[in-house]
Amino acid sequence: MSLFAQPAIEWEKIINAPSNGYTYMWVVTETPDGGYIVGGQADGGIGGDKTAPNKGSTDYWVIKLRADRTVEWDKTFGGSREDELKEIVLTADGGYLLGGNSNSDAGFDKSEDCKGGYSESGMPPDYWIVKISANGTKQWDKTYGGLGEDYFKTIQLTSDGGYILGGGAKRGYNIIKLRSDGSVDWERTYVGADGFSPFGTIKQTADNGYIIVGYSEDGVGFDKTQPSKGSYDYWIIKVDASGTVLWDKVYGGSDYDTAQDVTELSNGKYLVTGSSNSPISGDKTENPFTPGALESWILMLNADGSLAWENRIGNGRLSFFEEKENGHIVLAGIASANPDKTENSTSAWIVTVDNNGSIVSNLSLPSTGYNFRRTSDSGFVLFSDTYRFTKFANPQPPLPQTTLRINAGGPDFTTATKKLFIADKYYAGTDRTSSIASGDILGTTNNVLYRSARSAPSFSYNIPVGSGQVNVTLHFAETYFGVPGTKGEKGGTGSRRFHVNMEGSRKLTNYDIFSAAGGAMRANQITFPVTVTDGVLNIDFLTGAADQPRVCAIEVVPVSVTLTPVADAYVRGGSYSATNFGLTSSLEVKSLSTDPAVRRASYLKFQLPAQTPVVSAKLRVYGRNHENTKPISLHAYGVDTDSWTEAGITQSNAPATSTVSLGFAAVTDVYQYYEIDVTSYVKAQQQSGETLVSLLLNDPNNRNTRVIFNSKEAGSNPPQLVIQVTNSAARLSQEEVLSEVQEKQPSSIFPNPVKDHFTVSLSPNHGANISFEMVNAAGKSHSIPAPQNVKPGESAEFNIAGQLFQTGIYLLKVKSDAFTEVIRVLKAE
């Protein structure tokens, strides 16, 4: 899978239903405390995890789980007949909004009679919304509906603090906009001529309007401006904030086409998912794999509703799951065996499509659940209709796209220079934080950042950063020992001493914040270079000689990252020119001018880290010459076309190279990583705005010798693109002075990023003869004149306007007779 590795199952949970009843689970949602809220319908009495008897035929059943997945509470809400819970929304006050259908009259938990009348044939006719508090106490309920049947489908929070409620009335889409107290703001039913138009869903859009999808058999009339093209067609309506129609579109073939979901993407386009069994006709350009079978049909619409592309995928039911930074879309659902699916079984299925809707990759999961919910740790929960669900880990920890900053023990915080420190996360161990409400922290303009901290006898941070080299900066301030007015005011040097390990290596031993910063209520920072090999940065804070560890913030700056391909494949000529070799465990290269069937070449595609300037790039592949001991020159070439897919590329459609040879490696019969420098092409691609880079491996010398390398499917030693984003010479210079400045209060720079003017607040630990140098990414130094009579502890102002400092990352080297330190600087335009 190019965007997902096989995710690990972290845990499974079964809600125990009464043995004498019927239950059906519709929703599982993570809660802010790390637990889950689970809901559906149940009948029967007390039993299992159900603590209250039913009030009618079926009732809403809601279960709140703690973070350890034990039951915190469960509640049953209902009237005298049938009540079916289908959606739970977390509300701004920490409570929950329950949405579903009811045909019960007033009584028990229901305050209003059924509006549509009860039918012995069963279920709806009305929407029933119940507001409960964080502990499950009912606060209010509302019944919405007409004289006919109203089928509830969804309720969601809106940007004004209210809710949008959607479902299907007998003839069309019934939408109700609610205020925060449940009162009706406006209501509209969108209908066509005289046919049946089932509702799919509604989503609020970036312009505060809404987009609605479903399907219709109607002709032109009322809100429908285009006739249906088959038995049913996708019917999509865009409305403004008051529900007024802006446009509507109809898409379909000659048979059944039923839209179920829609998502507005970051580029303003709309992804519509649903099912179709139409043959090639109308807007449908592909026949079903099995004639008459329902298969996923995906549409990408432009902002005005016009069709950008469409694609038939497999024979399952897929919905939007995730949008990747490169524009690829991840879909998830359930599917049985089909030609688009690499595993011949019915299972949960994740599919990735590129910017044109072509399948990039797909992955089957060991579960038959088909509802996916994302979780805060970038994993997901998978569930179906039984009260059983499975938690999968994050399929692939994200690479650091820019510097990652964490406000330890505190919420999101943005500095005056627009640096975002995200709310505390990725920690483990003893969960304790401490903070002070006020107080000036010397040596920083960001007092808030240093007033809170994670502080406990033992804790760690496990931060997903990808593999490679990073610079880790720890921020400290002593806000207890030695602070006037606190119980610890008599403390000082030696009161708090603790250890810090990074990646299993000791970085600080009996570190004393008070001593290092020069007193209490003073900010101090220390930076360490660290190499990460497993994709996760591990930082351990351990009790030392006195009291317990404490850290205020953590910054992780990538120096280099090791990328694995998002796609790789080899192609072969002759009779194999139409054969795809994208899912094999090997990449092959062989060349012979007289026999096309012998020729093999390998393609690799990587996603570059966003907004991280590349200094160097090395392509590494693991394998050997499989035929003899001769060294074979393996050459790399740039390929500007990135639209090829792993499952679709063949010799017949493979893109041509766009460059001459970028370099080569001599491959022998020894298994090892062979490396080719591709810096020039990767930098050129990034500077032109590309986020993907494709490379070709080939033998231009027609040696008629087969060399074989591991592909990303091999399970070990995959291809790598090692990206260095900070120059090694500059980095080594920084490492040389780190040991000297670790126990000293550092200087700081403001603003950063800098343009023409900036100020350096000098460390009071500096000595005489202070000088300043700017070191660029190539390791070249540029002296900048120091202000006259600048002294330790004072501020020095600089103006570099008109000097030859281009946009990019620099290291400001501050030297004195006492020590040398380095500050990372970003030069902006």
From TrEMBL:
Residues 561-724 form the Carbohydrate-binding module family domain. Pfam families: CBM96, Malectin, Por_Secre_tail. Residues 403-554 form the Malectin domain. Keywords: Secreted, Signal. Residues 749-818 form the Secretion system C-terminal sorting domain. It is found in: Secreted. Gene3D superfamilies: 2.80.10.50, Galactose-binding lectin (2.60.120.430). NCBIfam families: DNRLRE_dom, Por_Secre_tail. This is DNRLRE domain-containing protein. It comes from Dyadobacter sandarakinus.
